[in-house]
Amino acid sequence: MRKEIMTTILFTVFTFFLCFAQTDDSLMIRKISDEILLRGKAMDNLYTLCKTVGTRLSGSAGMYKAEAWGLQVLKEAGADNVYLQQCMVPHWVRGKKEFAGYRTKKRTGDPSFDVLAIGNSVGTGNKGILARVIEVKNFEELNQRKDEVKGKIVFYNYPFNKTLLKGAYGDAVRYRSNGASAAAKYGAVAVIVRSVTGAYDNNPHTGALRYADSLPKIPALAISTRGAEKLSAFIQGTYKNEDLFIRSNCEMLPDTVGHNVIGELKGSEFPDEFITIGGHLDSWDQGEGASDDGTGIVQSIELLRVFKTIGYKPKRTIRIVLFANEENGLRGGTKYAEEAKLKNEKHLMAMESDGGAEYPRGFGCGMTKAQFAKVQGWTKYFEPFDAAKFTFNEGGGGGADIGPLQTNFKTAQFGLSTTGQRYFDMHHAAPDVFEKVNAQELNLCVVVMATMVYLVDNYGL
Ligand SMILES: [Zn+2]
Q: Which of 446 and 13 is assigned the larger pLDDT?
């Protein structure tokens, strides 16, 4: 009897402590989420980034303005120390507005098309290029018709495959990234690429390309989705036997100096263990770079501000990194991991937000099975936000900028995952503006990010 009583008492005490421990974390998470949802500063910071800094392509005046903005905002958020980490960045300039259209002079009202030079592309120069267009659906068709390509403009009309849901961008972006060199191999003089977007409108979407060193560099233009349909119809109809005129004045200048902007909260127990949270500070030169990746920037800064404001003292050192040059070089992310390796730093985890600020769903987790099992033990803290979907990706990355940390240190990666069905409508194009971002969705993303950072900081991985 006595033994039974003792057991009951012990069990009650144990349960009490278990509940108490859980409640402690739940209370802290509640405190974090209340601060963000009721008094959040992320939206305000996004406004100043979009409206006072604007676009910030590597090497542009906007890039330097953004760096100064980042230093200031990280200081205001309460970082213990704020500094710049220098790296060389590519300096590509767009030049005069691009043109693509028919100029037959045989008819009035020859059509022209909405185009943008693809980033890192060479230009046609002022005299432009006049050539016949050959439309292909994909690389397979290009290879089949390689003998017809010489001296022509290759038009890749590969649609964004919406049945792939979140995979459509990765599937279609090959044509923008590698299409120029693939066509140059068969003697093409330029390429036009259907914009990598699910939107159906007149906005061309830019982005980067990569030239193969062994092949001639030919000009590359992105065309809006409606423009692509129109061009396709004209090629097969009225303008079947006509040349298209294209002109672009973009060029790649010598590399210039850029910076990662870094703010830290010093760890109280393990100051030499690092947790890196970030997004990329650069953007394309269209719209305002609001969702790509202004939101990732302000979310990361907000996470630091919230910890500081509610008086949470992290055990590990939390580093907020506003990465330079993700878009057309990845020099910032590469530099950050290089420096970390030189200093032999210990990197426990890294988190990136670079997919817009739609409703958060969870994280893509690039880590070991054992680490993932630990993360899965925390789902209950994410269920109230309907964001407990953790996807295991063994040894995989969580984002472009934190990828090099994975390569150098096998650092556990967390890529914020959202509903992700609107982001590519505006990505790298004129509609990527502040007004497209929803405050509640933006803030919920921070809640989910901060919750994960809090748990890893406390319990390790
Ligand atoms: Zn981005």
A: 446
119 — phi, psi (to 5°)? Answer: -55, 140
Structure tokens at 306: 């919230």
Question: Residue 441 C-alpha to ligand 1 middle, in angstroms?
Answer: 18
CA 43 to ligand 1 center in whole angstroms: 18
Cα distance between residue 59 and residue 94, in whole Å: 12
Tokens read off for 121: 């592309």
pLDDT at 396: 81
- pLDDT single digits (tens) 354-377: 999 999 999 999 999 999 999 999
Can you tell me which residue has the tokens 């210039």? 256
Q: Scan for tokens 């959040």, then name that residue.
A: 40
Scanning 153-294, the segments in alpha helix (DSSP H) are 168-184, 225-236
CA–centroid distance, 370 to ligand 1, in Å, is 30
Predicted model pTM: 0.93
Per-residue pLDDT reduced to its tens digit, 121-131: 999 999 999 99
Of the candidates 330, 326, 392, which has an alpha carbon nearest to the alpha carbon of residue 365? 392
Q: Which helix (H) or strand (E) holds 389?
A: strand 389-392
Catalytic residues: 326
